[in-house]
Amino acid sequence: MRFATCCLAILLTALVLGQLASAQEMGKSVYLAAATSKFVNFPSVPECTMGAVQRGDPSKGDATLLLKAKAGCKIPWHWHTADESLMMVSGRARVEMKDGSPAVLRAGDFLDLASKHVHQFTCLAPCLLFDVSTGAPFDVHYVDASGNEIPPEQVLKAKPAKPAKKAE
After folding, report:
1. In angstroms, rounded to a whole number, what is the distance separating the alpha carbons of residues 161 and 75?
2. Is 0.85 topped by the overall pTM?
């Protein structure tokens, strides 16, 4: 079942990327309506989060993703090889960083994370946000409490997302 889902996600991503690449190669502007975006689960990311490729190819490098996640969805402590910029479109999320203060992100808020910056992300209300990754393919490296990298399977098999706490 997971293999079939992964193949479907790859196929959908390839179709969208093919259309985008054609337009970008011709030097045309690209418009993608959020309402028509094809959201899929990405490998190594909790199932409560889905994404739609808006530009680029996340498996090869620079990419813009439109992500949505359910209230209570948590992406545990992790880092990315690429630099990551997040822009909240709607909802509310809590981001915690190993070397900084936590923040609650709301519509219009922006967060910029350097490569290998350890953080975790929890949607407090249903979230819709843009994720722009630059400088490397999109990846997720989970870490334990000591900062040691752990396999995604160890994190993703954990308990399902709990309902979000009341507004902060």
Report:
1. 10
2. no
